[in-house]
Amino acid sequence: MASKKVKISANQALNATNKVLNSMTEISDHYVNGKKYYNSNQAKADLMVVQKLRKRTDFVAGLTVVLWLVLIIGTIVLCVTGNDIVLELLHL
Q1: Looking at the structure, do residues 17 and 52 belong to the same domain, yes or no?
Q2: Total domain count for the chain?
Q3: pTM score of the predicted model
Q4: What is the pLDDT of residues 35-81, one digit of tens each?
Q5: From its phi and psi, is residue 91 left (phi > 0), alpha (psi between -120 and 50) or beta?
Q6: Same domain, 73 and 83
Q7: HSE-CB for 46 with a 13 A CA cutoff
Q8: In angstroms, what CA-CA distances link 9 with 4, 18, 20, 22?
Q9: Residue 78 near residue 85 (C-beta atoms within 8 A)
């Protein structure tokens, strides 16, 4: 009876050890593949694409902020001065 329990415990320990070993092997494989990709030309090309996209996104975000500020300030000016300033700008 006791030998069966020891055998079951040993099998469970062996299974747990195999799971850990498989996990470590997977981690090692992911690391090696990641290192290969990091040093590859494809990674450099992908990085260039991301940097170009980031520049465009920054430009669009900045332009959006500027347009909102112009709209807000324009609305405030029109509310304070009335439409007189618009008529003066149009020379009417």
Answers
A1: no
A2: 2
A3: 0.45
A4: 887 888 887 888 889 899 888 899 999 999 999 999 899 888 777 77
A5: left
A6: yes
A7: 7
A8: 8, 14, 16, 20
A9: yes
